[in-house]
């Protein structure tokens, strides 16, 4: 049954916990599966042609799409390897020692990035416009290295404070430079979990991360935008405190390691679930009829009372069978 409200409003209703059916959805794809789906649906602009309710863009692109090699150094001085078909992984960190001496943070939001963002937003005014403005704990990890950063939290906490404050200042400047843009929400990418639990102790998370999240999210809310947070992994224990510091929506809530019904029951009136279908399980392992059934079941159960934007966890990857990708798409389009 078609809804009479706009797609933008349908997403806002989900974020305000107003029940609407059909449930708004977001579909995104890694390059390999995108090529196959474009061919299958004969689509020029796949995400728009499939009826997405959101446009999810980045303020500053992380990895350019026209790389001539398989490595890339980003604006923070982090060198990435194995990029192109995937995001890649850091192979060189600019901070070899626990000091910011001689390190200079890049310019936040240069004009060329703002103009690119303006054009993207202008072409998608009918959709809910979500922009990733940066990262935080992840950025510290990329700049210093995960092992080194964890050691620094114990041996060099003053350096970690200085590093986190520098990243915070950069992010706050980005948020300020976006004033006046036709944005509906801002998202922070900041993984805190792995498959079995948290990457760092709750005490360290509260010491080095939580206060800065509160500062960033307060500023976003003051500008009238919704706050989205992306974190992979088993982070159920952090959900109450993430709500406390001001998030509206949490992505992707990996169904393989988190009980989505538990999150819905205990926190569903305070946070919107953005995700719901496992890319490590359902989408690659189950037959198409099971994929369709699970999508519709998630819409019916987690969408009750609002608070759901259904999406694949992270994105559909190249290992997703074409028939399963099509089943997911058909299910969300025919709720």
Characterise the protein shown here:
- This protein has 335 residues and is α/β, with parallel strands linked by helices.
- It has one domain: TIM Barrel.
- The chain has 14 helices and twelve strands.
- It has helices at residues 7-15, 31-41, 46-49, 111-122, 137-144, 146-155, 157-177, 202-208, 210-222, 239-245, 260-267, 282-285, 288-302, 322-333; strands at 54-58, 71-73, 79-81, 89-92, 128-135, 185-189, 193-194, 197-198, 226-231, 249-252, 272-277, 308-312.
- The strands form three sheets. It has a seven-stranded parallel beta sheet with strand order 1-5-6-9-10-11-12. A three-stranded antiparallel beta sheet has the order 2-3-4, with no helix packed on it. It has a two-stranded antiparallel ribbon with strand order 7-8.
- It is globular.
- The mean pLDDT is 94.
Give the structural class.
alpha/beta
| Strand tally | 12
CATH architecture: Alpha-Beta Barrel
Assembly category: single chain
Order of helices and strands: HHHEEEEHEHHHEEEHHEHEHEHHEH
N→C terminal distance: 7 Å
Helix content: 40-55%
Q: Indicate the overall shape.
A: globular
Low-pLDDT segments: none
Number of self-contained structural domains: 1
Mean pLDDT figure: 94
Query: Strand sequence of the main sheet, in spatial order?
Result: 1-5-6-9-10-11-12
Largest sheet: 7 strands, parallel
CATH class: Alpha Beta
Number of helices: 14
């Amino acid at each position: 049954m078609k809804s009479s409200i706009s797609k933008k409003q349908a997403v806002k209703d989900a974020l305000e916990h107003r029940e609407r059916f059909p449930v708004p959805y977001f579909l995104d794809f890694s390059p390999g599966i995108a090529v196959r789906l474009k061919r299958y649906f004969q689509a020029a602009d796949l995400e728009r042609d499939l009826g997405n309710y959101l446009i999810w863009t980045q303020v500053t692109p992380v990895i350019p799409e026209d790389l001539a090699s398989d490595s890339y150094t980003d604006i923070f001085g982090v060198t990435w390897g194995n990029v192109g078909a995937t995001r890649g992984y850091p192979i060189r960190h600019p901070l070899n020692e626990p000091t910011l001496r001689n390190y200079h943070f890049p310019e936040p939001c240069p004009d060329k990035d703002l103009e690119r963002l303006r054009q993207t937003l202008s072409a998608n005014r009918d959709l809910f416009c979500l922009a990733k403005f940066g990262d935080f704990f992840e950025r510290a990890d990329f700049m210093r290295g995960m092992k080194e950063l964890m050691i620094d939290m114990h041996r060099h906490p003053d350096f970690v404070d200085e590093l986190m404050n520098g990243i915070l200042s950069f992010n706050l400047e980005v948020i300020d430079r976006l004033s006046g843009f036709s944005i509906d929400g801002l998202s922070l990418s900041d993984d805190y979990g792995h498959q079995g639990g948290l990457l760092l102790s709750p005490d360290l998370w509260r010491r080095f991360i939580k206060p800065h999240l509160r500062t960033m999210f307060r500023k976003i809310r003051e500008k009238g935008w919704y706050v989205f947070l992306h974190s992979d992994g088993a982070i159920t224990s952090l959900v109450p405190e993430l709500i406390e510091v001001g998030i509206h929506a949490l992505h992707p809530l990996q169904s393989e390691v988190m009980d989505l019904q538990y999150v819905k029951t205990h926190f569903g009136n305070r946070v919107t679930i953005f995700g719901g279908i496992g890319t490590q399980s359902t989408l690659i392992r189950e037959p198409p009829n099971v994929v369709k059934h699970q999508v519709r079941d998630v819409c019916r159960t987690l969408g009750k009372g609002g608070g759901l934007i259904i999406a694949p966890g992270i994105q559909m990857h190249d290992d997703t069978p074409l028939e399963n990708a099509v089943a997911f798409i058909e299910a969300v389009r025919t709720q």
